[in-house]
Amino acid sequence: DVSKGVEKIIKNNIKDFHIFEFVGNEVFTYESFYVLILENLSLNRIIINIPYSLGLIGAFIFEKIGMNIITVEQMKLLKKDSISINIDKNLKNLNIDPQDIRGILNIYLKK
């Protein structure tokens, strides 16, 4: 969807100042997205919610000992929601229907 959107912006020579939000039809929490991935892989895992401050400390320690599990910068990104706020334009303005994330996950995770 993103590559199709960029292609249309270039081909249609869209200029001026526009912000395009390339988002799908569904909003996921971090946990629900991981559950979807685990279901796709037919895996059973326990997901433990931990307070943000503990996650930040863990990320700091992981960085210092060289374990690339999660970084402090990634933890900071998790603090913000990444959902559409309809600020300007989206895929529909480019006549693109977002693909279903479940189908995409199925393709990439089965390889």
Overview of the molecule:
There is one protein chain. With 111 residues, the chain is mainly alpha-helical. Helices cover 46% and strands 4% of the residues. The protein has helices spanning 2-11, 30-40, 52-65, 72-78, 101-109; strands at 20-21, 89-90. Strands 1-2 form a two-stranded parallel ribbon. The longest helix is centred in the middle third of the chain and has 14 residues, at 52-65. The protein is extended. The model has no long low-confidence stretch (mean pLDDT 85).
Architecture blueprint of SSEs:
Blueprint lengths: L1 H10 L8 E2 L8 H11 L11 H14 L6 H7 L10 E2 L10 H9 L2
Summarize the structure.
Helix content is 46%, strand content 4%. With 111 residues, it is mainly α.
Which secondary-structure class do the elements indicate? mainly alpha
**What are the segments in which pLDDT stays under 50 over at least 5 consecutive residues?**
none
Radius of gyration: 18 Å
Number of helical elements: 5
Question: β content, as a range?
Answer: under 5%
Helix content: 40-55%
Summed over residues and divided by their number, the pLDDT gives a mean of 85
Largest beta-sheet characterization = 2 strands, parallel
Give the H and E element order. HEHHHEH
Distance from N terminus to C terminus (CA atoms, Å) equals: 20 Å
Shape: extended
Number of strands: 2
Strand order of the largest sheet: 1-2
